């Protein structure tokens, strides 16, 4: 399976990190070894002093596809999930300053949280109006709505499939809204879609 991530897909998040607004989706990958194992805590890696949480809506691909037209993209997924794209922000900035890839800052072990629960997409009245949030120690730190995406889910699937053949089980992280921040030891991070809790993890 592949973990395909979309960066800079919410304007407010682009602004908070002082990045330029892209003209097309920013894509990066996480290896499957970056998936945080179920019921395991997230351990802050020793190579970073500034790991950030980034909550994101996830899409699980359910059929093989290449060069998918946007109008048919909805046929390639049935479920919506929630996850965290952990980012070693200090390391990422060093890599960006040198014009180097971000993988070390984004793809390290445990850097991809995938919620234990997936929700049938048909249970939503509109996929472009899904509320989601991240709570840190029971306090909301990120709130988002898919209506604020620069590129919506079907647009993302179509665009990504031009470059990568999508396979059953591949997961797409669709981008994070504003409010990203540093994690500390003993933090508890809880992710919700609407009022439904999809994960809760502890930081070590």
From TrEMBL:
Domain Fumarylacetoacetase-like C-terminal: 2-186
Coiled coil: none
Keywords: Metal-binding
Signal peptide start and end residues: none
Domain of life: Bacteria
Keyword flag Metal-binding: yes
TM segment ranges: none
Claim: Metal-binding is one of the keywords in the record: yes
MF-aspect GO terms: acetylpyruvate hydrolase activity; metal ion binding
SUPFAM superfamilies documented for this protein: FAH (SSF56529)
Record-given protein name: 2-keto-4-pentenoate hydratase/2-oxohepta-3-ene-1,7-dioic acid hydratase in catechol pathway
